[in-house]
Amino acid sequence: xxxxxxxxxxxxxxxxxxxxxxxxxxxxxxxxxxxxxxxxxxxxxxxxxxxxxxxxxxxxxxxxxxxxxxxxxxxxxxxxxxxxxxxxxxxxxxxxxxxxxxxxxxxxxxxxxxxxxxxxxxxxxxxxxxxxxxxxxxxxxxxxxxxxxxxxxxxxxxxxxxxxxxxxxxxxxxxxxxxxxxxxxxxxxxxxxxxxxxxxxxxxxxxxx
Length: 209
Known about the structure:
The protein is mostly beta strands. 12% of the residues lie in helices and 45% in strands. The longest helix is centred in the C-terminal third of the chain and has 14 residues, at 142-155. It is globular. The mean pLDDT is 95.
């Protein structure tokens, strides 16, 4: 069962993950990891797997605000591995827009259905749909996207640039390829101001707060 979207961005909340073959039972805290700012002309946000160019969208998933730089962020948890004791930082959600202005969350709808990020490569991306033509050659360049993927493995969220301008923000889906639900946040005037992608890791945990 998906986590309520408002819980995905309640930084400081604690969750208990059960033991599995990789990690012991452990309590974790939701932490905000800032991502690169995404400059936008109109706020026409596309959400897609950037390393699956055959399925890149023709239209924006939603509009968030108007023009101007949009904040991006990950909601992360750190889990300590059994054995070596090293900590793995993993994203449980990826967001774009002004989270502080969100009053209510609703499923992002397309064709009257709940929109999901369909990730085949374990990557997701936020970008303005008007930059799709600039990005498509990069999405189709396997060597370039392998470099982006390798960076995302360690940095979790990275920028893609064209001519020195950030045109996409790419994030790692730590659970691998999958279908990830997207919600849109509305302010008090019911204007869309943010989106969040549920990366579904919290489905395995119990909320403590």
